[in-house]
Amino acid sequence: MATETHTARRPVLAVLPRITGLLNRAVTIALLALLVFWLAVNLVHGPGQFGSVLLIGFTNGALYALIALGYTLVYGIIELINFAHGDVFMWGTMITVSIAGTRLGLDGSQSGIVTFLGVLAAMLGAMIFCGILNPTIERVALRRLRNAPRLAPLITTLGISYILSNAAQFFYGPNYTGVGAILPSNILFLDWPAKSLIVILATIPLLLALTYVVRRTRQGKAMRAVAQDMDAARMMGVDVDRTISFTFALAGILAGAGGTLYVLEITTTRYDLGQIGLLAFTAAVLGGIGNLTGATLGALIIGLIQAFNEGLSWHAPGEQWTTSIVFSILILILVFRPQGLLGQPEADRA
Amino acid sequence: MIDKLPIPRWARRAILPIIIVPLVVLYPEYYTSLGTSQLIPTLSTAVTMTVFVCMAVGLNMVVGYAGLLDLGYVAFYAIGSYVAGWFASTQFASHSIVFGAVGVQSNAIGIHISIWLLLPVAAAMAAAAGVVIGLPTLRLRGDYLALVTLGFGEIIPQVVRNGDNMFGTGFNLTNGVAGITPIDPMGFRYLHGILPFLPDNFLLTPNLDVWFYRVGLLLVAITVFCSIRLRDSRLGRAWVALREDEIAAAAMGVPLMQVKTWAYASGAFFGGAAGCFYGVYQGGAIPDNFKLYISTLLLAMVILGGMGNVWGVCLGAAVLSYLNQQGLGAIGNTINSNFGTNIEITKYEAGLFGLLIVLMMLFRPQGLIPSSRRKAEFDVVKEEHETAGVVVG
Predict the structure, then answer these.
(1) Assigned domain for B393 exists
(2) Alpha carbon distance A153, A244 (integer Å)
(3) For residue B92, which of B163, B180, B157, B168 has the smallest C-alpha distance?
(4) How does pLDDT run across A224-256, given as a tens digit for each residue?
(5) How far does the CA of residue A45 sit from the closest CA of chain B (Å)?
(6) In sequence order, what DSSP letters do the residues of A33-77 get, joined into one string?
(7) Which residues in chain B come in under a pLDDT of 70?
(8) Strand locations in chain A, DSSP E?
(9) Residues of A in Cβ contact (< 8 Å) with B137
(10) What does DSSP assign to residue A105?
């Protein structure tokens, strides 16, 4: 009897998911169409402005990608949102200012080769600093909590985030600190915002190197193994603790490099810059957390959205709404596509 | 020692409340006799403490009972404050509605409704917002959920800050960065006629903080009472089941969606009421008050006190809000004047709170006064891993 009613009701219920699915798709298409229309009108309105906004968007995206990859790497391996990561990045910018600005005194007046070497030194310094800072955090505060309830490490990273930003406030003061325009604003005879281009170009080898490390090296293989199944990896002889430390170091190195590029592009920084991490994390979720390509794609999208919102003139909500827009996107993504753009639902990651 | 004395169990349980409750309730009467040290909480600090205790107990329902991390609790505080701002000030100057408000003319411009009525309204609006936040997150796992709440906690203050010209229509909803100020005072307008010792308007009493403190305590009492009754109710037990094991709870017939939504709604309810009261006490709803920092601070209160234990959370909230409001600065000044140093301790406030959170998580994750059930949970986790031969720090 019961089974009969069940089968009788089934066709009616079976239609429901299809309808909601169609509705979802229709809403998505409508929203995308609206976005494209808005962009097209803006393009017609001011092509030059549109071009420069596009470039800013890509630069933002490249910077966010370097931070977002750190979130995604760490989440991929121990399923933890590292709220302190944005502040590690902030420390990367601070170290860059210290080395390039205070120590070496770069201000754009030096010759090309000196500037290049100086920036390289600052970048290496920031990468090393953050590459040590991040695994130290893991070692001191997170390793002991690996088997604690899930909320414990998450809350701990929140606490660390406050410590890091307060420490930066202590050492660098509460105001903006920065360097002069180190990079030239045009290349040769072209009137082209060179520093943005340099930032984008500098990101590419970093991303390639990361891909190489994760895909081709033995340590990368260990990372992927731990990400898939920590216990099984341990049984196969993978040093889990060391692999996790290595992942944190990789994330820190990328954040450090991002810090240097950020300073080159923006030229100023402050102790509360770590909040940018929330945008980067949104990018990681948008692309599919744990997925490296996804994080980069998500970061580009978020960077472009931010630039369009802040730079376009025809009906753009403006800078004061950026956080709201980005977080609305985050919420929509989490609700309608929790696995992100490129993520696999609950399948293998990293 | 005390265990050996022939005191019945109920009396032993009653000892602490019998000592503490009068001390707390009569605080305005005796605090001036405690001396003039700046470490003694002033009444205005005490009022702030009651507000934060309410909010922390509300947050505890979400985080402590149901185990859903909420990083955007400040949103409910904001909503509560703005409800007070909208319905008890001159914000909507094109209307003229006066209903039971004190301290305003009967033909005053703007909407002026009695604060006593606005408290439940603010609570209900915050609860509705809690449902709105809760609904999309129902399908999500722990940390994603934390993110959505974080997102709402960032969006609502930004909307409030930019709300003086909603979508370019010129409609002034929130009065932007300046906020809505002043908000009408509280008072016993009608009861004053029957019971003359109840003041007509708190602002006209010799020490207005005394009456605000009493109302704050009343709110705390209601919140704590509701919190305990909810915890022991069918719903509360469902929350705990959900926290312990979502899949097992669902298998036992706990309707996850409903139970989670209720957790958000009830947590937000008390946040809204406390926010409304605090807005009235401060005399305005100012966007700068609604920062992510408040959400984290509230979370730290819950953790410090002991997630899931109402008394622990009250203690944690009282201690941290005292430090935040007055204590840190006072301690710094005391150190400076005694040792001739020159430390501005309030500058390190954020870092100190961060350190506190980290140390608590590392060395006493169950909090100062742990809830017995949560403590058991931590012990089980530890045991499991010790028997498995894994070293736990």
Answers:
(1) no
(2) 14
(3) B180
(4) 999 989 999 999 999 999 999 999 999 999 999
(5) 20
(6) HHHHHHHHHHHHH-HHHHHHHHHHHHHHHHHHHHHHHHHHHHHHH
(7) 1-5, 138, 141-142, 166-170, 373-393
(8) 177-178, 268-269
(9) 334-335
(10) -
Cβ-contact A138, A245 below 8 angstroms: yes
Q: How far apart, in whole angstroms, are the C-alpha atoms of residue B156 and residue A68?
A: 24
Q: Report the residue from B148, B303, B392 with minimal CB separation from A331.
A: B148
Q: Which two tokens stand for residue A282?
A: 């949104």
Nearest CA in chain B to A163: B351
Single-letter amino acid, residue A218: R
Q: List own/partner pairs for B125-128 with CB under 8 A and 24 or more apart.
A: B125/B79, B125/B80, B125/B83, B125/B272, B126/B76, B126/B79, B126/B80, B126/B268, B126/B269, B126/B271, B126/B272, B126/B273, B126/B275, B127/B265, B127/B266, B127/B268, B127/B269, B127/B272, B128/B265
| Per-residue pLDDT, B52 | 95
**B158 and A CB contact within 8 Å:** yes
Q: In whole angstroms, what is the distance from residue A110 CA to residue A113 CA?
A: 8
Residue of A147, A166, A330 lying closest to B350 (CB–CB): A166
Q: Per the structure block, which two tokens stand in for A164?
A: 């890091």
Best probe of the A interface among B361, B362, B377, by most A CBs < 10 A, is B361
Q: Has residue B270 been placed in a domain?
A: yes
Backbone φ, ψ for residue B111 (5° rounding): -100, 125
Residue type, B299: L
Q: For residue B293, give the amino acid letter.
A: Y
Token pair belonging to A54: 């596009």
Considering only CA atoms, which of B241, B111, B271 is closest in space to residue B180?
B111
- Structural domain for B261, as ranges: 2-387
Chain B: give the shortest CA distance to residue A327, in Å: 5
On whether residue B324 sits in a domain, the answer given is: yes
Residue B183: how many CA atoms within 13 Å on its side-chain side?
30
Task: In whole angstroms, give the CA distance from residue B64 to residue B73.
Answer: 14
Give the SS3 label for residue B88: strand
Q: Please measure the distance between the N-terminal and C-terminal CA atoms of chain B and give it in whole angstroms.
A: 33
User: CATH no. for residue B153?
Assistant: 1.10.3470
What pLDDT digit, counting tens, does each position of B318-346 carry?
999 998 888 888 888 888 888 877 777 77
If you compute the radius of gyration of chain B from its CA atoms, what whole number of angstroms results? 22
The predicted pLDDT at position A10 comes to 54
Question: Cis omega (within 30 of 0) on the bond before A11?
Answer: no
Report yes or no on whether pTM surpasses 0.80.
yes
Residue of A nearest to B157 (CA): A324
- What backbone torsions phi and psi does residue B341 show, to the nearest 5 degrees? -85, 180
Q: Record the tokens describing residue B99, joined without a space.
A: 């209903």
Number of folded domains in chain B? 1
In this complex, the residue of B139, B299, B381 whose CB is nearest that of residue A148 is: B381
Q: Cα separations (Å) of A69 from A256, A284, B272?
A: 12, 7, 38
- Nearest-CA distance A326 → chain B (Å): 9
Residue A187's DSSP bridge partners are: A190
Query: What is the per-residue pLDDT across B85-111, written as a single tens digit (0 to 9) for each?
Result: 888 888 887 777 888 777 777 777 888
Q: Facing residues of B166 across strands?
A: none
Which residue carries 């229509």 as its tokens?
Answer: B169
Q: How far is B71 from chain A (nearest CA, A)?
A: 10
| 3-state DSSP assignment of residue A177 | strand
Q: Is residue B358 part of a domain?
A: yes
